[in-house]
Amino acid sequence: MNRTRLVAGLGVLLALLVGARVYLSLSAPKPVEPRERIRQLFAEGKVAFESENTEALMELLAEEFTFLGMDKRRLQFELTRFFRNADQPRAELGELQMEAFGGRILVRTPVRITWRDAQDPNNINSQDYGVVEFEFRRYQFRRWWFFTYEDWRLVRVEPTRVEDMPL
What we know:
The protein is α+β, with helices and mostly antiparallel strands. Helix content is 38%, strand content 40%. The chain folds into 2 domains: 1-28; 31-164, Nuclear Transport Factor 2, Chain: A.
């Protein structure tokens, strides 16, 4: 009787472990072709920007992110301030020109931002930044401490016309 319970208990434990392993492997992100993933990141970033979601924008950035001397936290502060003073921000991107270099991808595209003034909703503002260069790098991440997967994060943004940047 005790031996039967022990075998049944071990069988249940083994079934739970195998089931957990299968569940976790099925829920791990599937690899996506790097250029397609970068297009997805731009789409996610555009949606986050237009919905004024700074947290979602920060998730797309690497910890060592830089933009005009700002780090990730400073950019979040500036974006929060911008969203407070702007209404209905929109980002217009041109065609994404990508160059892949192993674990990094450079993307160049024209960028234009439009928004309505919060104080005067009839006034539409826009800023054309010209061609902007974005650098993405591949990073290793863990999900549930067991599974590693690769994803891309934005590490650097460099405008071509620095003097025109309002931030």
